[in-house]
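ok here's histidine kinase, seq below lol
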Amino acid sequence: MRDAQAINLSWLLRLRWGAVVGQAAIILGVHFGLGMTQRLVPLFVTIAVAAASNVALGLWARRERRIRERLLWAVMALDVVLLTVLLDLSGGPFNPFSALYLVHIALAAVVLRAGWTWALTGLAIGCFGALFVDHLWFPSTGGELASAHHPQHHIHDVRMHLEGMWAAFALAAGFIVYFVQRVTRALAAREAELVEARAAAARHEKLTALGTLAAGAAHELSTPLSTIAVAARELERQLTRTGSEAATLEDVQLIRQQVARCRDILTQMTLDAGASQGESMVERAPAALVEEALEGLPERERVRTELDARTREERELVPAHAFARAIRGVVKNALQASGPGKPVRLGLVREAAGWRLTVEDSGEGMPAEVLARAGEPFFTTKAPGEGMGLGLFLTRAVLEQLGGGLVLRSTPGQGTTVVLTWPAGGLRQSAALPAGASRVKPGT
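and the structure came out like this:
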């Protein structure tokens, strides 16, 4: 896939060929059609320089190489200089086609960054001003010789008019660059917002699909699992009454335990996939959410917590169950990545915009290609049976519903840091509640 600069260069090549053809046609039309004698040889030599440079640039661009912005600027600067030569050979500032400077400036404002654009604008203003040196300013102070060579330049009003055109050109060029750059930046920002909105919509659709899949699996499997549970319980009672071997009884009990575990897994899948959709919002201190998330976690003693004092004083309106499970999933991943005996650092602080929870593991980190995909549904680097690759995806979904976000930072050999952020206070506004959520006070 070609980058933006390569695309800009391809269009610039086409525009330059159009300019070469157009300039040649205008010169010939003026010379032969209007009967205004032109200096054809130097004019067509200048056009030939533009054509030759375009041929060379086209051949160079066919190779697979990176197109840099300064190359585009150099090509546009060459075009400005060549236009100045053409104008100087055909009337200087009296030539009405001096307005074509604005075309180059507008094009630069679209394809180049602000610094390069302003540099080209300064070059164009300087080149336009240079036309006055030979055609207006020097002849006006050259006495009779100048009057004989340029008799029309003695018209003072015409001179003032042309100098005013130069000032107007500089002003128009400045306005074009400023507003085109502003519009371009605004469009780029809008495009970024649309990309993020589409990504959020895609994640929401995946989350909804997961919830539907989990609910459907739970519904379809509930009947056969219940039947197996009932049959296993009756079989256990029968074996107990008949005094069967202990090993056989243990096998039946194991069947019942695994059936119960399957039902728990299906229930948890439904809860996880649903995230905070429809869950009641309750007021909780952020520290309480962290404690709830860590409660009963295997190897809890390896988690080193650092909680800001304000985490126990302030209370926020959140879907407590989904939020605690989101934190728990991140900490659990950190424990697994750190390896046996290695600590996991957890820090919760209050910032100006809200809360920031940082979880740092002591693992080996992730390479760039894995980090780029972390958080995608069903993507996991864990061994089979240790995870489904939904933890980070569901955590991000919970945070985004609350107006927050999740950021992953990892360096191979230096561990991974997960940063969870969510706003403070804003969740108390009705507009911030997810659809179907309700407010519930603690203890109600």
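fwiw The two ends are 58 Å apart (CA to CA). kinda neat tbh
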